Amino acid sequence: MPLEEPARLAQELASHGYTADREAITLLAGADNPAEALLLAVEATPEDALKLTAADVHDALETRSPAAPGDDSDHGRRDPISSDENRETDDDHAPAAKAAKRAASGAKTSVESSTDEGSAPSTEPSTGDDPSVSTGTTMSKPAIDRGDVPVETKGSASGRSADPALRSLEIGNNMTGRSTGTGEYGDFVTTFRDRYKRLAGKLRGRINHRNATALEASPGGGDAGMVGMVSDIRSTTSGHWLIELEDTTGVFPCLVMKDKAIAGLVDELLYDEVIAVDGTLSDDGSIMFVDDLYFPDVPRTYEPSTADRHVQAALISDVHVGSQEFMADAWNRFTDWLHTEDAANIEYLLIAGDMVEGVGVYPDQDEELDIIDIFDQYERFSEYLKQVPGDIEIVMIPGNHDAVRLAEPQPGFDEELRDIMTAHDARIVSNPAVVTIEGVSILMYHGVSLDEVIAELPEEKANYDEPHKAMYQLLKKRHVAPQFGSHTRLAPEEKDYLVMDEVPDVFHTGHVHKLGWGKYRNVLAVNSGCWQAQTDFQKSVNIDPDAGFAPVLDLDTLDMTVHKFS
Ligand code: D5M
Ligand code: FE
Ligand code: ZN
């Protein structure tokens, strides 16, 4: 059998409009005549089905063999849940129904693979002690040498047959369908009050604080502390820093002297983030001299959760289908690889925005479009997505190139777009959203604020070559986009969905098209690169994208391996 048979079969199935479980592909690949088997399976599968399961293939092949029973008795042999119930349908997004379906297909899968139970999953990537993860600076990129990909045989199937019943995936902070904002000024006040309330709550216990009005009324001298939102930062003529902090009662000026150790923290500050300061009041009580400055931050002792079994998630973003620079070859290699034994433990695929190139996102962007209609772009994206094994759970959030509002939080795609992308029954959720997979919470955020953080902060604290460092800043501020106005747009909602209420175990962003990861107080920050080669604009500003990489996260250890497909 040719080496790429499984991948070729997956593509062939995609051209017929089906995705397929890996096991279904393996069964086809193991048939005497895979091409013929594929046609039989396609014929035997109802047109409204979106995914071919191992049971479908089994049925199709069995039905044909002389000894095979007829349709009815065939059903009797199978799992009690009929294949029709087991299929993914357009209108069936209810989690319970989905869980039931997955459990059902899990039951089938285990039946199908029972013959090769003994084979061990021997080809999983060895990432257990990848030192690059903790340093966050070097990359381990085991280049995919397609010659090394083991030939798929029927016998190897069980090693990578996942039991969907073991899976769990929950979505939090999803504001899709919950937008309340009208864009009025009053809405912004509501959002900022909520931001203040929630972030101040994380800081109050750390200092002895008074509100702005109380500070103003105090006679002066003595210790003072305040929790506030940064409303202004100015340097004084003598080089000190004047920070205006605002709370729900007013604004109070706080002075950070340039010779203080904490003066170095001032250039990490962004407008509208919430901090606490501690110090003394001036004799006349008009200003506070700051001795200490605190961010809501991640506790130093934070212990992330891990999955109970060896299972992996691929974290990608910025696919940019529709752009002339979309790297179809790299994408094809990636999805081919997902069908191999090497990728057997990858049961989840997270896509952090910019599925398509979009239209009118930047001036002159249309000159580099391959597909000019936005819906056609999503149609094509959906075709590319079908190459992903049907038994991988997909979660996606929008980015600034996607066809949803630009202002954040961005709701998940509307019905029209969802209808285009039904093949995988992907979870389509808001930007940002928290995805908890088998106990591991992953904060997904597209990352537009990274441009803002990188522009505002000193090079060593945030830069495009180490995007994870800019992510550390966001973790420290416990907010994905504190400052808005130049790159980031804010949509005022009743609640500030951009606040990180809980510390995530993993923080996944994209947008800057650079690959970088590292740990900040045990939280893994991953910026996942892109699938788009350098655009003319990027060339003009010297952005050298990391295109065609797939970072793969071990959910049981939170170690990362990066695979290269470009
Ligand atoms: O963002 C990709 C990266 O490139 C991100 O850092 C913004 C930057 N970028 C790309 N094109 C432009 C233009 N035309 N102006 C400003 N910044 C740009 P993405 O969201 O994929 O475009
Ligand atoms: Fe992008
Ligand atoms: Zn983007």
Give an overview of the whole structure.
- With 566 residues, the protein is an alpha/beta fold.
- 28% of the residues lie in helices and 18% in strands.
- The protein has 17 helices and 19 strands.
- The strands form four sheets. A six-stranded mixed β-sheet has the order 3-13-14-15-17-16.
- α1 runs parallel beside α3 (34-44), α1 (5-15) crosses α12 and α2 runs parallel beside α4.
- It is elongated, with a radius of gyration of 26 Å.
- The two termini are 25 Å apart.
- The structure holds 2'-deoxyadenosine-5'-monophosphate, fe (iii) ion and zinc ion.
- Zinc ion binds next to loops.
For this structure, the CATH topology of the largest domain is: Purple Acid Phosphatase, chain A, domain 2
- Count of helical stretches: 17
Query: How many strand elements?
Result: 19
Largest sheet: 6 strands, mixed
Report how far apart the termini are: 25 Å
Ligand list: 2'-deoxyadenosine-5'-monophosphate, fe (iii) ion, zinc ion
Task: Report the top-level CATH class of the largest domain.
Answer: Alpha Beta
What is the CATH architecture assignment of the largest domain?
A: 4-Layer Sandwich
Rounded average pLDDT = 82
Strand order within the widest beta sheet: 3-13-14-15-17-16
Task: Please report which band the strand proportion falls in: under 5%, 5-15%, 15-25%, 25-35%, 35-45% or over 45%.
Answer: 15-25%
Overall geometry comes to elongated
Structural class by sheet pairing and helices: alpha/beta
Low-confidence stretches: 65-160
